[in-house]
Amino acid sequence: MRAARMHEVGQPMRIDLVERPAARSTDVVVEVKACGMVPNLGNVLANWPRWCPHLPQPRLPAIFGLDPAGVVSEVGDCVIGIRPGDRVYVNPARSCSTCYYCLAGNRQNCSYFTFNGYFGFQPESQVLFDMYPQGGFCEYMAAPHYAIARIPDEISFYEAARLGYVCTGYSALKKCGPLTGQSVLINGISGTLGIGTALCAIGMGATRILGTARNRKLLEQVRKLAPERIEVFSTESGSVAEWVKGRTGGKGADFMVDTLGAMASLEAFIDAMRGLRRGGKLVNIGGTAGEVPIHTKWLMDEQIHIMGSVWFSTAEACEVIEMARTKLVDLSVFQHSVAKLDDINDAISGVGSGGSGFRNYVIVP
């Protein structure tokens, strides 16, 4: 089969002929129809070993591609309930399947937890890269049965290739607790993660969604997703915390999900955090990095909860897929930019140029 592989950090990918995977006992082989492309992929591929040496990437040459969707072509002889011809999304989350956390359904806490087709979280991740060497930038990929989520005909492969970022926001919002009648501050709402989180907050019943970003034009586009519930604020206009307190009668937001990108300032994170109400919860799913000074007495006195949330479970992907099927989560708002596998290097160079979380970058074989 044909696959785009990176042979050297910072160098263009090559289209290689590699062995097509076969389905082992509990594995599924998927014919890839579309794979989402991370907006910051070019920078990640060129700089990741320097930026995050503690988060290993697979040994080169490697097939990347984080968010694949396609059709099942083959299943292992120990796979039950998944059949050739099924339309599916492939969750790139990989784990050992035998530790306590995997058995409890919390694969993200497994010491082997790995993003297939992207990067790992500890040295053990290479074990899973070796077991599942195909990311989504190829024609066929093998995946464990626990990573497979069926998608209905109502959801296109292009839309399914965006599920990674939508479901990440959904998982974060679930950690907040029930949203009905509550206020949610989404810091960085116009970005790739921010739009997905906003769509899920709408579907999950958040009464007031407070969104922040820089670009006023994009903010207005976000507001129109649910104008009776979404209020927006440009960070170029002043303090987020002051604005949030002003919109909530001085109390602050019930919950905050930070979706800021890797290049955002920590000052923006800290400012928004101060917009939480007493007893509020902050869930971080963004890419900002660095040490954040936190006044521990404020943390205690205000009973603030701060947590990180990495990716999502396949069960949560199934929940979002059902919400999308019934239009509680409206995936039709995305504008798809589609490129062929042969043009992947040009696509990587141009990804993110739209500057909007509404843009969905997709590679097709």
The gyration radius over C-alpha positions equals 20 Å
Low-confidence stretches: none
The proportion of residues forming helix, as a percent range, comes to 25-40%
CATH class of the largest domain: Alpha Beta
Order of helices and strands: EEEHEEEHEHEEHHEHEHEHEHEHEHEHE
**Assembly annotation:** single chain
Gap between N and C termini: 10 Å
Question: Any guess at the CATH architecture of the largest domain?
Answer: Alpha-Beta Complex
**Which term fits the overall shape?**
globular
How many separate domains make up the residues? 2
Q: Count of DSSP E strands? A: 17
Largest sheet: 7 strands, mixed
CATH fold assignment of the largest domain = Quinone Oxidoreductase, Chain A, domain 1
Word description of this protein:
- The protein is α/β, with parallel strands linked by helices.
- It folds into two domains: 2-162 and 334-364, Medium-chain alcohol dehydrogenases, catalytic domain (Quinone Oxidoreductase, Chain A, domain 1), CATH 3.90.180.10; 169-308, NAD(P)-binding Rossmann-like Domain (Rossmann fold, 3-Layer(aba) Sandwich), CATH 3.40.50.
- 28% of the residues lie in helices and 25% in strands.
- It has twelve helices and 17 strands.
- It has helices at residues 41-51, 100-103, 125-131, 157-160, 163-176, 192-203, 216-223, 240-247, 266-273, 296-301, 314-325, 344-350; strands at 2-5, 14-17, 27-36, 67-75, 87-90, 93-94, 114-115, 140-144, 148-150, 183-187, 208-213, 230-234, 253-258, 276-284, 305-308, 335-340, 359-364.
- Strand 16, helix 12 (344-350) and strand 17 (359-364) form a beta-alpha-beta unit.
- Helix 5 (163-176) packs across helix 11 (314-325).
- The longest helix is centred in the middle third of the chain and has 14 residues, at 163-176.
